[in-house]
User: Which sequence fits this backbone?
């Protein structure tokens, strides 16, 4: 153990790209993350893994700082993991 107070099973924050939730479409279960470089990448609640203290799509808020990872789908680049900070 390295003495950090990370929760078990929680990936380290530096594993993710930095971004902000720009837009949420709660009714559709979709959203858009804006990366630190300004790129906007969509995500769907059904296809994204939430890590960190926020574990439900309904608890996400526009303007929330997040870490994220991406993957390629049949519809192009999409967010696959969202990590929220406490």
Assistant:
């Amino acid at each position: 153990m390295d003495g950090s107070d990370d929760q078990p099973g929680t990936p380290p924050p530096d594993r993710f790209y930095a971004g902000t939730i720009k837009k949420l479409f709660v009714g559709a279960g979709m959203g858009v993350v804006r990366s630190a470089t300004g790129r906007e990448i969509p995500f769907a609640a059904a296809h994204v893994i939430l890590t960190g203290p926020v574990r439900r799509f309904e608890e996400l808020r526009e303007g929330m700082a997040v870490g994220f990872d991406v993957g390629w789908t049949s519809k192009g680049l999409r967010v696959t993991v969202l990590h929220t900070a406490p």
